[in-house]
Amino acid sequence: MSVKQNVSLNKNKEPLTDTQLLMTITIIIFFVMYLLAVVLLQGGFLHAQQIFDLLNDNASLIIVSCGLTIVMIGGGIDISVGAVTSLVVMSCVLYLNNGGNIFVSILLALGIGLAFGAVHGFLISYLEIQPFIVTLAGMFFARGMTTILSVNPQKVEHEGFAAMQNAKIEIPWLGYVAKNGNLIPARMEPGVVVALLCVIVVFVLLQFMRLGRCFYAMGGNQQSALMLGINVKRTRFFSYVISGLLSGISGYVFMMHTGAGNATNAAGMEMNAIASSIIGGTLLTGGVGNVLGTFFGTMSLTTIKKIVVSSGLNDPWWQSITTGGMLCFFIILQSVVLKNREKRKHA
Amino acid sequence: MKNKKKFFNADLSQLAIPLIAIALLFIFNIFRDISFFSIGVTTNNDGNLVLTGNLISIINGASELAVLAMGMTLVTAACGGQDISVGAAAAIAGSVFVKVLKSSPSINGGTVILAFLCSCVVAIIFGSFNGSLVAVFKIQPMIATLILYTCGRSIAYWINGGATPTVESPIISAWGSYIPGIPVPTPVLIVIIVAILFKLVFRFTSLELLTQSVGINGSAARLNGINTTFIKLLSFIILGLCVAVAGSIGVSRLGLINHETLLLDVEMDAILAVAIGGNNLGGGKFKISGSIIGAYVIQMLTITLYAMKVSSTDVKAYKAIVIIILVVIGSPVVKSKFSKFMGQIRSKKIEASEKGAAKA
Fold this sequence. Notes:
The complex is a heterodimer of chains A (about 350) and B (about 350).
Chain A: H1 18-41, H2 48-73, H3 81-97, H4 102-126, H5 131-149, E1 154-155, H6 159-166, E2 169-177, E3 183-188, H7 190-208, H8 210-220, H9 222-227, H10 232-258, E4 260-261, H11 269-279, H12 291-310, H13 318-346
Antiparallel strand pairs in A: 1-4, 2-3
Helix pairs in contact in A: 1-12, 2-7, 2-8, 2-10, 2-11, 2-12, 3-4, 3-5, 3-10, 4-5, 4-10, 7-8, 7-10, 8-10, 11-12, 12-13
Chain B: H1 2-32, E1 39-43, E2 49-53, H2 54-61, H3 63-79, H4 86-103, H5 109-135, H6 141-159, H7 170-176, H8 186-204, H9 207-216, H10 218-223, H11 228-254, H12 266-276, H13 288-307, H14 315-330, H15 332-359
Antiparallel strand pairs in B: 1-2
Helix pairs in contact in B: 1-13, 2-13, 3-8, 3-9, 3-11, 3-12, 3-13, 4-5, 4-6, 4-11, 5-6, 5-11, 7-11, 9-11, 12-13
């Protein structure tokens, strides 16, 4: 798959690139799904708070998915993100409980993430080991370290952190009036701001910066990227470092949301993140993807779960079965759309 | 003649990493505690003479993994990707196995075979679902199998209506542990049978050659008249059969089906076994024997760590370190640097001996 550049020979008829097309499909389907939920189920879906709840619960997933999108655009895979998130949560909780201060705990979170990213990047790009195996080992290591640190759930008992955790951003004009006449403002956690910032930064990085364009070139065709004079090894190294760093941030956001460390934290998050990226139109083969699509992919994934719960399918298995079904739908849709495009191009 | 020798070397070098790993683990255990290798004969609850010991539990415990690794090798070779849904699919196959056994009035040889066949059919259906996504829709195997990975265990839960039923029968316990009169655990025998079946299939059909050519260059294989879609689909169907076998072993071992814990995380271990076995995860040439040895390396590592009193939750961290060391040794860059280094030493030696010869 070659890198699609916006060659504007004919400005009026500039076709959508694969990336834009897949992202547009995702965004349209997300809005259709949400509208259907509003029409059919009403209830909570009418309030803006519903969207904020989705964001509050999934801020860390959004951050992790951003990192994964970068790695996948570069043609790699990182399945350690969930485990690193869990390790960051546990180590920060233990550090804070042993009388640490908040600033250092943030540095600790970023440091752990960076360390994992750098080791993965080094092994994958400079020693040319398969990314799946390296990040699998990273996942085992992080999960193992989490249980070595503590098998039992640990709650944060730190006054400063508790204050930070309880801080909520209130938006009165998006609130709604409760039955007793009180105005209940929409509540948003600080983690959401961090997550949205991450999305914006990654978007700018991928669209407008040299490094970001190098990721696309490398994922699209490694050989031609090399011919163009891109330092492929260093670019690949940085893709894993950024993914690691974002897992570190995600760990801190996760801790701000739950306020406790647990060995099973963020279990299965890596697969959710991969699913979000795929739904958002990122291809595992590399070179195609957009972080905005990933954002809407995460939202679609979480909205469908919410819809299943609100529509009264209470048996525990329905959530993942519908998620699987949706994933199947998206994957086949993307495959068919891309196939048709290829055909039309050749015709 | 020279070509033959080279081929032999290439053949061995693929098995070098897993064999070195097993040798290192043996040496480590000899120095740590020689009694690790002791094999005893005891009488179990049913009054049979059975073999016991760490080595037996390694060979026994790796059975499901070895069976899955064999199928995974084929999928990896043909499609250049891995199936991450084998654990979930095994849970489904196990659920069907138990469901059929539970719905029959009495458990005898016939019903067990029927149940096994049913679970095979279900596993093949799910395997061909994955396979058709990969082969027909041209989706990356890992993405295609992510669907079943996400919902597989829930489907298994749904099959048994949210319960974890148990089955008790001498036939089931014979399947999962020991057949009366034979001191070797049955799962080990099953692995041997599956391995022989693979060997026979490769001996009498051209499946091995076709799979490798599809994996190395799919479009070239297609232009040469190989039905690549069918070969890819077939590899997933064979993996489905392996999944059914592994699922039935896993269920019989415990005598119950727990959709959450049956063969948990086995997909990662199976992929690891394939990689440790020296197979390229990008597809192409493969060696089933490497994957089998890889499976035993993983199990031996785990049992060694258990013997060192590492708790079961912490094992993962140590396992990761060993894996990293293994893959770093096996990485192409390190290999080429090492061979260059050896070449330098050799040339220096030759120089020195030439000098010595000149002096004399």
